[in-house]
Amino acid sequence: MRISPTTRLLVTTLTLMIGASAVQAQVTPKMKMTTNIPSGIAAPDKMQTRLGTLKFFDGFPDKETVKKVYDNLDFQRAVQAYLLGLAPVNMAGLREGLLSVGPANLTIPTFEENLNPRSLFLTPNATTPYTWIWINLHDGPLVVEVPPMTLGMIDDFWFKYVTDIGIVGPDKGKGGKYVLLPPGYDGPVPEGHIVVHVPTFESILVWRNMPVQGDIKPAIERLHKNTRIYPLSQVANPPANTFVNVSNRDFSTVAPADYRFWELLNYVVQNEPVSSLDSTTLGFFASIGIEKGKPFAPDARMKKILTDAAEVGDATARTLTYQSRIPEAFYYPNSTWRQWLGGYKFESQPGVAYLDAAAFFYFYATGVTPAMEAKMVGQGSQYAVGIVDSKGNPLDGAKTYRLRVLPNAPVKDFWSAIVYDNQTRSMLQTNQDFPQVSSLDKGLVTNTDGSVDVYFGPKAPAGMERNWIQTIPGKGWNMLFRLYGPLEPWFDKTWKLSEIELVK
């Protein structure tokens, strides 16, 4: 019998439908307790994802899928661990640099002149000399005698704020004796001391030595006369300290961004109590093999993942810093000036971590204190970060730019503009001793309306050498505009910082 094409097609279709129904009936037979399963619960046999094709037998992953998923999970957790680890590894970089000068506690490294670009620090200033002291409380409490007229803080090894010292601290700028107590200490404390409970065994003590009418010599004399650090157990006969002038010194406190990042993070985890950090962050570290009391020994697979994650983590930190997508990250509508977000605790609201804000800060800056971001009219300091020009383009060292500081800058003390290297986030290394222009500078050219033009470029415009910061062709740069003793017009935005304009 001859079968027409139409009949043949119908038979084929019916056969396929019957076959499919038979397979479906075989896989999920109608049973006594069978009910409809809502969509979105059961996994398909194949998924097309950014990991490639994932295969399942009735929801159970095959071996290749298991490998892909675990590799991806380890990589994801490693990238997040990298971003969460920026703070302690930043501190570990400080530790390495400072201990290259001398042992902790006994050594008092100080820039007895303004810090210059030879020393690699994350976005330091070049207007007030710093004292940086690495604290180690593993052997017990320390007494720190602080000189008068300082401005500084103590941050723990996770780079969390512990206390201010100096002008905005409990000694109110008069100087005083601080007792630093390690985790778990319950022994006696002498009277007449400012008691500070430090959550970690190691920490940073840093302050600025404030000049007197522009003269730093009195501050350095006060430093040598009044600064002492010694164990509480040796209060009757304290050992001598070593003061080291690190001005113009070629050394680095900037942490690496490669695989060694993980080794530094492991050092912090192994040496600090679990109770000093939240369980979720420690859980991210543990998930990639960094856990207190256990050796950090990744196999070849995990070492490759960690190496890749360090690269992606660094790329992520740079992107969050240089190309923010958060509207509130900018000072004004349609402005390019970046601001710190989340306060000194880096929270979008109380109890909610502001992850991008923390990553930006810890990649870019050093030193956590409310004095750097809180509204303190006439005290402390405020910061505006210049990353791009007025059109949103990267700042190019081969081009010339201008920043016009409008009249009546809202500062009780002074303002400064300092240029940094996009790679190191340290002062840009050029032929200038200090890549900055400040309202304290002698010979600064002022416009007839009282405004000041600051120029950035490889060559100074004619007659504007005192208003010029040198840049380098082939290198990108960024800058910080600092206000010392900021006044109300800065906070209520009735005085606005102009954009960085390309000079054509």
Question: What would you say this structure looks like, in words?
Answer:
This protein is α+β, with helices and mostly antiparallel strands and 504 residues long. Among the domains are: 101-245, Immunoglobulin-like; 324-502, Sandwich (Jelly Rolls), CATH 2.60.120.600. It is 25% helix and 24% strand. The protein has eight helices and 24 strands. The protein has helices spanning 5-27, 63-99, 217-226, 260-271, 279-287, 300-322, 355-364, 488-491; strands at residues 46-49, 52-57, 60-61, 107-110, 130-136, 142-146, 150-156, 161-166, 176-181, 194-197, 202-209, 228-231, 242-245, 337-338, 347-349, 352-353, 381-386, 401-405, 411-421, 436-438, 452-457, 468-470, 477-486, 500-502. The strands form seven sheets. It has a five-stranded antiparallel beta sheet with strand order 14-17-23-19-20. It has a four-stranded antiparallel beta sheet with strand order 5-11-7-8. Strand 2 (52-57) and strand 3 (60-61) form a beta hairpin. The chain is globular.
